[in-house]
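[Automated response] Your request has been received and processed.

Submitted sequence:
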Amino acid sequence: MATLAPHPPSSIADLLAHTVDGLWDDTKELKHFLCLAETYCHKGKEYYDKGNLENAFVYFAKAATLVLDKISTHRDYDVKLKPVHKNNLDLVHFFTTFLEGGLLKREGGRMDKIYWII
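Generated structure:
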């Protein structure tokens, strides 16, 4: 019986395409997205620990997209978040501007390894 060869790693563009699927719904509450970002971080860590780097990347990217791009646009962001929580989200955004690829090692357009920054 022939064994199947493992599939080649997905390109970063292919993986990123999965990060936005169903990610944002303006009708949901702010707390929903804050909890979802935390859940995505935990799922990313679980996949990373199992060696499934592609799924780890997708879930970490979903969490990052929510925290860096989406949550601050929510209708209740300025109303329901305390200044300390806004500051924490701003710090995440601030530090990501300095990463310059430190989270992700790319070789030949493929994802090869995720590095922990902290």
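Summary generated for your ticket: Residues 21 and 91 are 26 Å apart (CA to CA). Residues 30-49 form the longest helix (20 residues).
If you did not submit this request, please reply to this message.
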